[in-house]
Amino acid sequence: MHNFEWNLPTKIVYGKGELSRLGELCNEYGRKAFLATYRRSEKRAWILDTALSSLKAAGIEVTIFDCIEPNPRAETVDQGVQLFLESGCEFVVALGGGSVIDAAKYISATAFSGGSAWDYVILAERAAKEYTGAYPIVAVPTVSAAGSEANAGGVITNWKTKEKSFSRSPYRIPKVAIVDPEVFVTVPRDITADGSVDIFCHLIEHYLTSPDASEIADRITEGLILTTMEYLDRALKDGSDLEARGQLALCALLGWSGIQALGRMGTIPIHFIEHQISGHYDISHGRGMVIILPAYLNHFADARPERWAKLARRIFNVKEDDDLQAARALGGAVVKWLESIDMHVTFSDHKIDSSKFDQMTDDIIRMYGTLDGNKVPGPRPMGRDDIMAILNASL
Length: 395
Ligand SMILES: [Fe+2]
Description:
Layout: E1 11-14, H1 22-26, E2 32-37, H2 45-57, E3 61-65, H3 74-86, E4 91-96, H4 98-113, E5 137-141, E6 153-158, E7 163-168, E8 176-179, H5 189-209, H6 215-237, H7 242-255, H8 269-281, H9 285-299, H10 305-316, H11 323-340, H12 357-368, H13 384-393
Parallel strand pairs: 1-8, 2-3, 2-4, 4-5, 5-8
Antiparallel strand pairs: 6-7
Bound molecules: fe (ii) ion.
Fe (ii) ion binds next to helix 5.
């Protein structure tokens, strides 16, 4: 286990009906809120209306910015920054899925620190600009997936260059996360499942790649994976199962909060690959993960067989005694799980062919290649051939 510091400063407010406390929970951050959210839809209008009436009841003036798209674009974030500054807002309320919360984070910190949102994104070939601070953020997740409501990360896309990348800043960790299970009841089946595969991927990234060992992190991860799988089944059977919705929401939040990697932080190769897929094709991040996950697991099974085998045995009940055999069984076990939730899909199912694979691979190496310039961190350093093999096997 390596040394670590872990701090989760986000106040987590959990429970049915807690959304109506939004105004009260924002009181200490100012009188002028910038509400970053998705486009209004009739089905989910009550969520926005509940948030607005709660803020109004607390005497908080609201500027609404409701044009954040999935895979939020740097240009959209910059428009948000401009509106935030023009309207003299004092804090940000992020009401939406990971895309909305990530965009809200960039709006808050870029408005505080100056410049353009993309200046702060990590790209291997340049030094990212450093924030000097951020306005407070209160997050209300409406999809269980990214866990952005209680961490420092954030991903945005530069639509001009088709680059999708991330940054982390402690300034942007939300002050409060309101997790209200009722909010998730209307999340459609496919988005619920995509989101849960994203949670699963967050949980396995460090588990599989860290060179260090930490049993507490492994056990926390395994508990969160088992909870995600069990309660996803329940949520897919009955979307209005509040207990299932709540458990999934907490798995999402904790699964990317750092608690799942205490003492054995690794790297995030599945995300490195996926970002360029949703960056080029504008499919959801979770769906991109679904597409490449089996091929990733099969391709690297022999890179760290002891880690693959541990996951295969503890989560999927694989009985092989030999580590390499157990490791090689993991991809198949995950495919069975994906099939059981109707989520075993490929690039072809999304009418995506291999025509952009070369460019995507070049971008992945260029953007995340930190080891001698042509390899990306992974279970073993990932080269061009590895990435191409995973993409091709996902067709
Ligand atoms: Fe993710």
